[in-house]
Amino acid sequence: MSGFPILSALVWLPILAGIAVLALGSGEAGARRGKLVSLVASTVVFILSLPLYFGFDVTTAEMQFVERVSWIERFNVYYHLGLDGISLPLVLLTTLLTPLVVLAGWRVIQLRPAQYFAAFLFMEGLMIGVFAALDGLLFYVFWEAMLVPMFIIIGVWGGERRIYATVKFFLFTFLGSVFMLVALIYLYLQAGSYAILAFHDLPLTMREQQWIFVAFLLAFAVKVPMWPVHTWLPDAHVEAPTGGSVILAAVLLKMGGYGFVRFSLPITPDASAALAGVIIVLSLIAIIYIAFVALAQEDMKKLIAYSSIAHMGFVTLGFFVIFQIALGGAGGAGIFGGDGAMLALQGGMVQMISHGLISGALFLCVGVMYDRLHSRQIADYGGVVNTMPRFAALMVFFALANAGLPGTSGFVGEFLVILGSFQASFWLAFLAATTLVFGAAYTLWLVKRVVFGDVANEGVASLKDVDSREFFYLAVLAAGVLLLGVWPAPLLEVMEVTLASLLEHVQQTKL
Amino acid sequence: MVCAISVILVVDVFLPPSRRRATFYLTMLALLGTALCSLYYGAGERTTLLYGSFVSDPAGNALKLFAYAIVALVFLYSRDYLEREGLYKGEYFILGLFALLGIMVMISANSLLILYLGLELLSLALYALVAFDRESSIAAESAMKYFVLGAIASGTLLYGISVLYGITGTVDIGELGAYFSAGEGPQVAALLGLAFVIVGVAFKFGAVPFHMWLPDVYQGARTPVTLFISTAPKLASFALAWRVMVEGLGGLHGSWQDMVIVLSVLSLAVGNVAAIAQTNLKRMLAYSTISHVGFILMGFIAGTPQGLSAAMFYTIAYAFMAAAAFGMIILLSREGFEAENIADFKGLNARDPWFALMMLMIMFSMAGIPLFVGFYAKLVVLESVLDAGLVWLAVLGVFFAVIGAFYYLRVIWFMYFAEGSGIESGGADDSLVAEAPASLRIVVSANSLLLLALGLFPGQLLELCGRVLG
Description:
The complex is a heterodimer.
Chain A: H1 6-23, H2 28-54, E1 64-72, E2 77-83, H3 87-104, H4 113-132, H5 136-145, H6 147-157, H7 162-191, H8 196-200, H9 206-223, H10 232-239, H11 242-267, H12 269-295, H13 300-328, H14 340-373, H15 384-387, H16 389-402, H17 409-422, H18 426-450, H19 458-461, H20 468-486, H21 489-507
Antiparallel strand pairs in A: 1-2
Helix pairs in contact in A: 1-2, 1-4, 2-3, 2-4, 3-4, 3-11, 3-14, 4-5, 4-6, 4-11, 5-7, 6-7, 7-9, 7-10, 9-11, 9-12, 10-11, 10-13, 11-13, 11-14, 12-13, 12-18, 13-14, 13-17, 13-18, 14-16, 14-17, 14-20, 14-21, 16-18, 16-20, 17-18, 17-20
Chain B: H1 2-14, H2 20-41, E1 47-49, E2 54-56, H3 58-84, H4 90-108, H5 112-130, H6 137-168, H7 173-181, H8 187-205, H9 213-220, H10 223-230, H11 232-248, H12 253-276, H13 281-302, H14 305-332, H15 348-351, H16 353-367, H17 373-387, H18 391-416, H19 438-456, H20 459-469
Antiparallel strand pairs in B: 1-2
Helix pairs in contact in B: 1-2, 1-4, 2-3, 2-4, 3-4, 3-10, 3-14, 3-19, 3-20, 4-5, 4-11, 5-6, 5-11, 6-8, 6-9, 7-11, 8-11, 8-12, 9-10, 9-13, 10-14, 11-14, 12-13, 12-18, 13-14, 13-17, 14-16, 14-17, 14-19, 14-20, 16-18, 16-19, 17-18, 17-19
């Protein structure tokens, strides 16, 4: 496998396919061929990404599948790609979801379908690029370039207030990330190159670290999104087309989390330790307060969007609670044989992957209903189980997973984080654990109002159950959620060594 | 070399405009000829000509080559528009070439007086170009405004030059540089001269608070003229600032740094904020120019060779972006319809996805989004500013870049998100783009794709800018 530039193939194949789809034209026949090309290309990319998993060496924290070519000599910038245990699962998540999203838009998108599918292919390539980039500038290029197709996706195929939503989305994320650019340039001037791994070993004073940490925080917190910079997310989610919501929730949000473990923690460990308290408080606010906000929603997509924020709060909590554990000195053998910090980190990572699957699936579920009745209001539904039994079963399953039912992947991530938090402080874990109550409350209440009960109106009565295409993509996700829920070992195994070395790195002071 | 250009120009002037196409081709030929001359003679080391009043150095030659390329691009864009509007006269090209000659003189000037001479040649040609459409009262008004304000600025610059001459007894830029580097002489008087020179430079760039002429001229002039003004003369402004501020007054860097910071920050603020409110695309681009100038000036602030090469890269990138943007306006315009309102771009994606995509690339490039050259332009400038330890300035710069992104996005949302055509806003319909001649379509596409190509592989151009100024 070593000779074949597999990561480059994963990045550029979708982009080239996207260009091909655009070139096929916007006519009826062109659109049909375009769809086919998109599906084939994204499936090929998924299949290509499988050898990454099977060829991955789990015993080392080194970067694997590395490619490195000089790109801009003057600034010592390299086209440098590689994967470790943190980025591999995220790449796989991306390659898995894109074909599903293409399928989800198969019949629904009537307006300029070629452009729609091309935009998603561009997105896929750029997202993989973000996770695989090992050069700071290359990372930034992918990170920012991704805004362009997403801006178009929400703006063209979105709902009524799409322009407001997409501009807000663009400006929020752009504002966050330009400060990251300043930080990256600063690091470049210190280190003499943009290599992320060189940044990891760069000694920095506390003052420098704090400023860099804040700059990164602005970029990643907007993306995650953390309270109080989350307000773009409900708008973007609600207005985006189904596919856009799925990619947004499942992959884009993960970039924020990924940024924390790839940049913030290893580059500025001391500042992270010093400011961990702030992040933890913000995470708890996201977990508890946003859960209440979710309870009050009338719009299904909005509810799921708020639940995303709450769940991502767990990710940031898991990443930053490790410092509290280190401070408390309550390491030692835990239930899973690792110490509490390791559990929290793993929990955060699992939560990212799991949330990617679950929230993606929930948005697809809403999409299925929306395609039929063209409404996202909870009040317009009720008793869906009577007319769409197969769909209802899947939707209830995802909702339970979202609420953290044991046996689903949602449980594993939250449980690990809470377990880790216990070693930091009882009250911290207690507050975090309330999510199991609130999460259950808003999701189950949603299910009760939408799925169960008597048939609410004629619209619901006329609903047709999911066809095989819809069933397929929901079932794939359900299988993933279940698999990770009952047997998370394959995922944990991939991450273990990388996270352990990260933890070791973070505990060494740079001062 | 400069003589050779003059000869070609004179031949050009005396060619009768009866064969109208011929003027265009001859002009292009002249550009090609001068480019070859520059390439041939300019390969060598730094040399001075005519008793040290001209200088030929690598950076100057590189700038000149870009100036030829951009002027050629401008002429390619303009030809069809001028023919259609009944404005096709040899004068446009001849004035354009005179302006180019002015630009070249400025680029190669090694004496403040020669620099001033080049500037005046350029300015006079531009004044005439703005008033080119005799029938239009708006154009005449813009030309008048431009002329009066331009004359004041020239006077200021000349006054500054004379003060500097009074102190040092020389107008030779090299000697001036040596004099001020030694740190001798009366400081107050030097500051006085410096301040006047900077005002002159700022005016030519269009930096706030000396930007008043820019929006009116951009909007008032016919599109090909705006296109001309917004592109090649920016290279001249860069040359002016470089020769005077860096080579001549580099020793006073500490004194002018603060002034330029003020100019830069004000330009960023005013340009970006004012652009949001515009409905006329040309006017919006004028304000966006002001904000880009803020970034170019940022490159000078550092006072390092890196900063200077960053400013040069930015200027060149900007010239290509502006050429593409105005080229797009020309492409979409047609008889009796200027396509100069942002609303005219409504629904362009539905009518012509290809050119909507091109415009999208131009706008994102101007906003500084990666994959396009505009991003690297901002990147190198920010790098130089951070290198100089001015973190707050870099933060301010990116902050205004975000504000700036908003109005570029507005153009894109009109093209992509708004349905329907621009018919209600002034007569655009589905045949809009199809009417444009193939040559124009190709040039606009090539220009836009160039922004992408330079964005994917910026290495070469960065290398060039670094090498010639290093």
